[in-house]
């Protein structure tokens, strides 16, 4: 079984990297979430099917509340990524689709467009993977990205995931079908 700690523990003691804090999302993040999505809408929309439905600040409040509830019910753990120095909200990295019996989760993430290309997502996701294997007791982490989303695929490669195949027309996004490259990382795999 996955060992999901209380959300409040990580709100008090967030996961830390050299440049970032990872803090469980709750309603206090809703305004920052809205601004991050709205200011990056053009860059996020081609890859994330939920972006067009995030039409007002209330949508971000609902997402933040749902994220807290999902954590409290051991269904998912989503973290806001914040800059350590400024506390600026940079994006979200999370573990989804918990399969407790199989100790399996799925990695998902996105960043504000004004902070891409700096290695922030590789750093944040790398820390989350370490936490997933050590603390959550995950055995397998799956991740998928559109076959033409080169930035996301580069993050996945840097994290040491192994390619497993192509899921054809796996997702309808922004009026088009996206093929997904599917990858996984096991707790026993070597990581960079």
TrEMBL record:
Q: What InterPro entries does the database record attribute to this sequence?
A: Acyl_CoA_acyltransferase (IPR016181), GNAT_dom (IPR000182), Ribosomal_N-acetyltransferase (IPR051908)
The transmembrane residues are none
Q: Which residues form the N-acetyltransferase domain?
A: 23-179
Coiled-coil residues are: none
**Superkingdom of the organism of origin:** Bacteria
Protein name per UniProt: GNAT family N-acetyltransferase
Naturally occurring in which organism (per UniProt): Pendulispora rubella
